[in-house]
UniProtKB/TrEMBL annotation:
Name of the protein in question: MerR family transcriptional regulator
Keywords: DNA-binding
Domain spans labelled HTH merR-type: 14-75
Pfam family, one: MerR_1
Keyword Oxidoreductase: no
PROSITE patterns registered for this protein in UniProt: HTH_MERR_2 (PS50937)
Superkingdom per UniProt: Bacteria
Amino acid sequence: MTRSHLLAGRFGAATRLSPKALRLYAEQGLLVPAHTDPQTGYRYYAAEQTPRARLIARLRQLGLPVLRIAALLELSPQARTIELRTWLEAQNQRLADHAELVEAMARQDEAALPALTIALRDVAATKIVSRRRLVTVVDLDAYMAEAEADIRAHLAASGLAHDGLMSVHHHDFTTRDNEGPVEVAIACEGPVEPIGDLLIRLLPGRREAFVPVPAGHENFPLVLSIYEALEAWIDRQGLIAIDSPYEIYPGSAAADFDIAYPVNS
């Protein structure tokens, strides 16, 4: 140890890192003291560690997690700049998406929804050919079109009618920046084998609460208001949604699609 070494307190003051932060970064391996006195436990940092410490402090100001900072520290300045600019673009897009959703929610609060026709119906057990994939809202339409075409082509190649209804099952929440598992399915009758990522399964008979989606509310984020209206109706009726929601194409009453929840009978 030389005179250029600083006690943790002085080093922290020079780099604007608190004692708590220095201990955390030492434990995480981001900024390990150059020397620890075995008798006193005092931690000393070398002057050469100052630029790294200040860089860590600046990255923490961005709200980056420790693991992301650790990866950035290992990059060259040029590569780190590219990574940070890419991260910033993603943050800006995420904020824009959030702003869009907030504005859509505000419009829903400020204006009444169009008249909705919500009802119950019983649906017989149905065999489906389906494909499930993680997608965002941005990729949803393209994925639905591709999956529908592939499934109908497989049914036709199997010698079966391929004009059954399409259903799109949302097994988790899907947004512009969050991938959710979405299953596209076509109803069918007759023997058919799975192929590739196309699966065969049976949807049990069920009662469903459904609503035709009115024109102008088919797309994200306005379609969320229709989901919420249906969910509120289910609650008011004293019913319980027993599985994830799905969309049915084409919908009833000349709608592009219906939104439905299976409910307890």
